[in-house]
Structure prediction request, 915 residues.
Amino acid sequence: MAQIHLRALRHSYRARPRDEVMADWALRELNLDWRNGGAYALLGPSGCGKSTLLNIVSGLLRPTHGQVLFDERDVTGLEPGERNIAQVFQFPVVYDTMTVADNLAFPLRNRGLPEPQVRSRVREIAALLDLEATLDQRAAGLTADGKQKISLGRGLVRADVAAILFDEPLTVIDPHLKWRLRSKLKELHQRLGVTMIYVTHDQTEALTFADQVVVMDNGQVVQAGTPVELFERPRHTFVGHFIGSPGMNLLPCEIDAAGVARFDGHAVPTAVADASAARGKLTQIGVRPEHLRFARAGETGLPVAIERTSDLGRVTVVDARHGEQLIKVLVAEAGHLPSRDASLVFDMRHTQVYADGWIVE
Amino acid sequence: MRSLKPLVPTLYIVFLMLPIYWLLNMSFKTTNEILGGFTLWPHNFTLANYRTILTDSTWYMGYVNSLAYVLMNTVISVTVALPAAYAFSRYRFLGDKHLFFWLLTNRMAPPAVFALPFFQLYSAIGLFDTHIAVALAHCLFNIPLAVWILEGFMSGVPKELDETAFVDGYPFWKFFIRIFLPTIAAGIGVACFFCFMFSWVELLLAKTLTSVDAKPIAATMTRTASTSGYELGLLAAAGALTIVPGAVVITFVRNYIAKGFALGRV
Amino acid sequence: MSARTVNQKAWWLVLPVVALVAFNAVIPLMAVVNYSVQETFGNNEFFFEGVRWFQQVMQSARFREALQRQLLFTAIVLVIQVPLGVAIALAMPRTGIGVSICLVLMAMPLLIPYNVVGAMWNIFALPDIGLMGHGLIALGFDFNYTRQPLAAWITLVTMDVWHWTSLVVLLTYAGLSAIPDAFYQAARIDGASKWAIFRHIQLPKLKHVLLIAVLLRFMDSFMVYTEAVVLTGGGPGNATTLLSIDLVKTALGQFDLGPAAAMSLIYFLIILLLSWLFYTVMTRDDAK
Prediction:
């Protein structure tokens, strides 16, 4: 187990990257600290650099600049085999010619552990992963989720493993088996307390697995926080938009002299009482569909025209239009739905102002 | 150990280039210089040999003839192989496995066995000494190869593509030509390359089935060796020129070689 | 491979192929079978002889010797080309400009007409005007492949290795390229040695490709004709008279149609049998 620190990390895949050109860099100035035993997720769209970051942590990639520290020890130059980490890949990597037992034993045998120890450890891990019945079968014959469990097992079999890294491990798993494997991972984390870092582009996976989610975009960390924090108070419009289904509504706004945010002339109550500091920048109001509701009789709000409703079972998504702007509202099943014209009421505490994409505090 | 790694392919390539270099070396010498003494490079550099070949029609027609039947064969082989490969890839039909195996066995047919029978057969149907005769004869082993390669690539295309097209109302041939073929373009390229290669290099059948009109370059070369004594320089130049089409083709398909040798099945 | 539907109309798609191949395969084969069981004294008169030619061929010392030489040649060639080809493929660069250069240069010998290959080596190994011949003499070896059977064999084998190893290299290289990076990455993480990587990752994934390579090389080396005959003409004497050379001498040279035909069939059957064995092993592994 180890604490992992990433200091001043920058990485480019080009041989001679130019500092001024952002497109040259896969990872731009990054600092992260992961405490021992936590469950972390790296979440972001394709190409945001999360897999690059993961491979730097595991040692498969050497960063152009910066350091990787395990428990204060600089491991930046060490090979993966020397860092004592484990990695589970997008598709199952098993040694086809060997049995399940031999697969699990492989890392231990490579380290020269005595055979009796190897065997007992293999049995332990197999029991944890429900693989005992298949120990003597050829690894090639297992299903995809069985093989992923073997990959996972190869990581767990080393008792002193520093961290287990997952690179979109559920990609090839059948959908109905995904949740089973996910629960298994969560269970294992709770039992063994191993640091786990999970890379994914699927927010459901990230938000259900991790204690802390690191959202990345374009080679940078946009926000790192608990799932609740990310949902309730996204620090960047990207996080607001990426997380949540549907994502956050972003309404272009102006900040008037009194520091009040106005959308199309209408004053909108926000969590920020005085937004004067954001004047002069590109300002937006951000509010999640969950935090909007339709005005009841007697209340005033933003006038909108209802275009469409989609019944998703427990909730209904309403597409409402104000001028050019489409606003999505989430209404609970029992909620009241006006017919055509309505007014929107904003939940002030969850309505944020963003300047140039970043939250205004 | 790491520093030794590039040495292996380098040494191998040097080994491969030596005889070719020697051939080029001789092609730029006069026969007198070749027989006169041993020199590592031409001391009296001359282009006379190449000039002869490129101007004398008995020589350059050899190349034209060879290219003609090779191209004919490639077109025929790949064209008929395409629907057949599709059938093997998409359908099960009576005898399909046995048919496929039978096709492959023709790749195992020794040309030596077929030399005389082919001579008699093609003479009997009046096609002796024509380009089409050689083109058809080479179909014996090139069609099975083309079918094998194309079937491998086609199996990599999901059936859903076909089904969608049929549901959308495409008639079969329109779907096949407009939609399906472009998706396996790489496979077609590979199949063409292999048909070209195996037809270009095969000489026993080509010589047996031709005499004057469709005489391939190989036959022209042996004629020179026997009748006018050893015109080594000329022979070397002729040989060097036979390497050119292959080198050209290979440069074009070099990006597909890795894919191609996988025959779509690895 | 997703399920294939049963459709007998598929035969129409296959018909052109069957027609062309059958024309070239079945008719000549029938002619060969015909000759193999008949005797002719010219004048287009044929007399049924049954299995006489087959017996004659099988009992002929000449045929048996040619078969032995052929088996020896194929064995030597396979033992050299397959490991060598794999070793070279393993050492080839995976990325960068070196890849294209390597592939193009290595593929060149495969694209040279067989007679030119034979002619090149014919001259290359000559003691007075060939680089190899001259070089060996200069090093002190008494090397004359037109007179010494051993020298002829060495030249023949070297020529075949020069000509065909690249096929094994390219096939193996394609197979190696198909191995996803993640396997190598996992091996690094598991702390596996280079030998372990070869044994547990590369070799198993290459099995299919290697079988294709061995099958192709077996078949083609068993059928070798033009390049060998241009190189040595089967000599000195009949030291390098391989099966196809012997066959053509008998058929076209001596015009002994009956024995030649019988020999052809036996020849073809040997290849078919051994190839079928390979094919079965190959597809048995696929089905597993």
The CA atoms of residues 137 and 185 of chain B lie 26 Å apart.
